[in-house]
């Protein structure tokens, strides 16, 4: 998979050289390009924002640099890959990002993330981008961040770990929270007693069927307590 990110703060993404995604990049499983939006400006001040038409507080990101950036990055998608990119604009006004979104996007060949700042990006950029690829406006949750960088980092991490070969043991992905609509069961490691707290006996029993059934009950109980909205109405 190829991922391109456009931001006015490219150094936010330095962390993506670390850990599993860093290793996936070195192994050639994931290609990541991080670009400074200001490289597509032509004035002396490398301006990316201007005042909003109609008035109001804050500044809006100008369409011209975004148009040039998207033209160049989408063109890079076409020749060898024969596909159009999926262009993602993080936005608090978008569809909410879930594990299902991450799974869906992990099957794409080329993702382009456009990180907004200020009051956001001129609306015409989203319309224009639809001619270059599939456009998705995606929210990390119902709150407002200062920019799209943190949301993009979170999405790249959630998507990237689902790409085959990124996580060493693929079974560990199957059992995680949200994969089957439930939260994960509690996990324990050695020692079996720590500060007078003992690991549940069932986990020391060696009986795999009983352990599996205990874990399932824990998943349902934990989901009912913490996230009843995830359960079907008859289980909630
Ligand atoms: N004026 C915008 C609104 O009310 O919808 C918010 C702009 S916000 C200060 C600046 C940028 O941060 C957005 O363009 C977007 O890229 C990013 N952002 C803020 N909250 C986000 C969220 N919950 N999910 C994804 N991106 C977010």
Model description:
This protein has 236 residues and is of the alpha/beta class. The protein contains seven helices and nine strands, in the order E-H-E-E-E-H-E-H-E-H-E-H-H-E-E-H. The strands form three sheets. A five-stranded parallel sheet has the order 2-1-6-5-7. Strand 1, helix 1 and strand 2 form a beta-alpha-beta unit. Helix 3 crosses helix 5. The radius of gyration is 22 Å and the shape is elongated. The model has no long low-confidence stretch (mean pLDDT 94). The site of S-adenosylmethionine (SAM) has 19 residues, from strand 5.
Descriptors for this entry?
single chain, 236 residues, alpha/beta, five-stranded parallel beta sheet, two-stranded antiparallel ribbon, 7 helices, 9 strands, 32% helix, elongated, binds S-adenosylmethionine
Q: What general form does the structure show?
A: elongated
Helix segment count? 7
What letter string, H or E per element, gives the SSE order?
Answer: EHEEEHEHEHEHHEEH
What percentage of residues falls in helices of 4 or more residues? 25-40%
Sheet with the most strands, sense and barrel status? 5 strands, parallel
Number of strand elements: 9
Cα Rg: 22 Å
Taking strands numbered 1, 2, ... along the chain, how are they ordered across the largest sheet? 2-1-6-5-7
Mean pLDDT: 94
Computed structural class: alpha/beta
N/C terminus separation: 38 Å
Strand residues, percent: 15-25%
Ligands bound to this protein structure:
S-adenosylmethionine
What oligomeric state best describes the polypeptide chains here?
single chain
Note the topology.
Blueprint: E1 2-7, H1 19-26, E2 31-36, E3 49-50, E4 60-61, H2 63-81, E5 86-96, H3 99-105, E6 110-114, H4 124-129, E7 134-139, H5 149-160, H6 171-174, E8 193-194, E9 197-198, H7 208-226
Parallel strand pairs: 1-2, 1-6, 5-6, 5-7
Antiparallel strand pairs: 3-4, 8-9
Helix pairs in contact: 3-5
The structure holds S-adenosylmethionine.
S-adenosylmethionine binds at residues 90-93, 115-117, 119-120, 139-141, 143-148, 151.
């Amino acid at each position: 998979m190829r991922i391109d990110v456009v931001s006015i703060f490219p150094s936010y993404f330095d962390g993506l050289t670390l850990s599993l995604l860093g290793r996936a990049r070195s192994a050639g499983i994931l290609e990541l390009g991080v670009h400074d939006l200001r490289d597509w400006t032509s004035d002396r001040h490398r301006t990316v924002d201007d005042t909003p038409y109609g008035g109001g507080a804050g500044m809006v990101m100008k369409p011209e640099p975004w148009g040039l950036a998207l033209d160049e990055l989408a063109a890079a998608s076409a020749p060898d890959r024969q596909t159009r990119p999926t262009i993602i604009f993080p936005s608090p006004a978008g569809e909410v990002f879930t594990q299902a979104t991450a799974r869906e996007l992990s099957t794409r060949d080329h993702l382009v993330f456009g990180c907004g700042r200020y009051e956001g990006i001129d609306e015409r950029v989203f319309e224009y981008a639809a001619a270059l690829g599939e456009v998705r406006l995606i929210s990390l949750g119902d709150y407002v961040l200062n920019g799209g960088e943190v949301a993009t980092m979170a999405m790249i991490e959630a998507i990237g770990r689902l790409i085959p070969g990124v996580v060493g043991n693929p079974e560990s992905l199957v059992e995680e929270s949200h994969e089957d609509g439930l939260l994960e069961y509690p996990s324990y490691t050695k020692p079996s007693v720590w500060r007078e707290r003992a690991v549940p006996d069932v986990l020391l029993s060696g009986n795999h069927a009983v352990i599996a059934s205990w874990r399932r009950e824990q998943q349902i109980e934990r989901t009912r307590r913490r996230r009843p909205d995830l359960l079907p109405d008859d289980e909630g």
